[in-house]
Amino acid sequence: MATEILMPALSPTMEEGTLAKWLVKEGDTVSSGDLLAEIETDKATMEFEAVDEGIIGKILVAEGSEHVAVNTAIAILIEEGETLPDSATAAPQPAVQATSEPTSNASASVPQNTPASQSTVQATAGARMFATPLARRLAADKGIDLSTIAGTGPNGRIVKADVLSASISPKAAAVATASLTQGQTATAAPAAPVATGASSDAVKKLYEGRDYSEVSLDGMRKTIAARLSESKQTIPHFYLRRDINIDALMSLRAMVNKDLSERNVKLSVNDFIIKACALALQNVKTANVVWAGDRVLQFDASDIAVAVAIDGGLITPVLRDAEQKSLSVLSAEMKDLAARARDKKLMPQEYQGGSFSISNLGMYGIDNFDAVINPPHAAILAVGAGKKKPIVKEDGELGSATIMSVTLSVDHRAVDGALGALLLDDIVKNLENPFVLMV
Q: Any idea of the CA torsion for 254, 259, 261, 263, to the nearest 10 degrees?
């Protein structure tokens, strides 16, 4: 039986993608786990794996095609000796347009924990059972009822791996099916629409007679626009500001970098900020939360997301368990994540999640700014440049110091003002007494 290979959702925000390159050709035999194609998502270029075995009977979407909607058929998989159905004989399409624009709640398209090579579909009682031929044969051999299995293939199709998992523990498979159905029902509720402003036609009318060029939005820019519009319209932001004397930090950094120069390690101010935030979240645990609709999720670890500017937008790779890592380890990990982020080579698990964000524009000479919260995070720290400024010292004498201005944007639904102030105060103490970051 011929099986459609569908355009996968390789990230939670993906509505469409670019089929950058085919790694197989028509007539090739593939097995589960074999690489089929390279697909550009809104955040990265990722490899797409086969979920079942068979022969590539027909490629329906040519490589280089842009705007290929998720769940669009991109190829036909057949069994040995099987012929293609009449409907699959058309030539490959140079491009496939998405059937709809991304919604404001783009992250609801795929559950956060869905593996990159899988997609899901809501199941209803009495619905037709979809399974690959191999999965059906295995189920028949093992005496397994396919209706008790939750399919993980495209559009919920049951594949070989599902049957093998069910053969180990049929009861567990039945429980997984029930859990999956409940989870999908919970995510099916539509989100409130987010206003997008005037239409493109209305805006263009304002500039009739003026020369301009139109720049189409790619997937990343659409996702940024949708998520940050949602953030500002649905999250009650409040802002806490502090000036930090970083003279001690700068002196310690210079000393440490001198000692580490032989190892080709150079710590940045941002590395100290990451560690300071990670330790503060451990000390003020009730602020280490994300907003989850009707509740907050409080975390044990400090998973810090750091905004990285890349061509055409930004991405926030996550440093997990940052409170447990040394400054040199954090520095090396951040450099690796930032480099791969700029090359769009990050895996979804490397930029999804986190409980707190940092956005540092100090290297651009920005004194201070207010950052937009990255949902579902409850806070983000905006960091400005450290600059020499006049101060009044503790003895009342005038002096100068390197002052860095920071602003903590906070979601008032999850964190109250006093709690946010405690968190920011802890961050300031860590940065003004940087030796605690070396422990």
A: -140
| Residues 395 and 270 reside in one and the same domain | yes
228 inside domain = no
Residue range 362-388: mean pLDDT, rounded: 96
Q: Is the pLDDT of residue 104 over 70?
A: no
The CA distance from 439 to 434, in Å, is: 10
What the block records as the tokens of 356 is 């707190």
Look up tokens 């032989």; give the residue. Answer: 262
DSSP for 271-313? HHHHHHHHHHHHHSGGGSEEE-SSSEEE-SS--EEE-EEETTE
Residue 351 belongs to what H/E stretch? Answer: helix 348-351
Strands 313-315 and 308-310: antiparallel
Residue 427's nearest CA partner among 249, 301, 292 is: 249
Q: Pick the closest to residue 110 from 124, 120, 96 (CA basis).
A: 120
Phi-psi region of 214 (alpha: psi -120 to 50; beta: other; left: phi over 0): beta
Q: CATH number of the domain that 176 lies in?
A: 2.40.50.100
Dump the DSSP string for 417-432. Answer: HHHHHHHHHHHHHHHH
- The residue range of the domain holding 357 is 236-438
Whether omega for the bond prior to residue 317 falls within 30 degrees of 0, making it cis, is no
Specify the pLDDT at position 86: 63
Judged by average pLDDT, the poorest of 148-152, 163-167, 217-221, 294-298 is: 163-167
Number of domains in the chain: 2
Write the single-letter amino acid at 406: V
d(CA 38, CA 19): 6
Distance from C-alpha of 138 to C-alpha of 163, rounded to nearest angstrom: 7
Q: Is there a contact between 248 and 401 (Cβ–Cβ < 8 Å)?
A: no
Reported pTM: 0.64
List active site positions.
Answer: 412
| Dihedral angle, C-alpha 102, 104, 107, 108, nearest 10 ° | -90
Whether residue 20 contacts residue 39, with contact meaning beta carbons closer than 8 Å, is answered with: yes
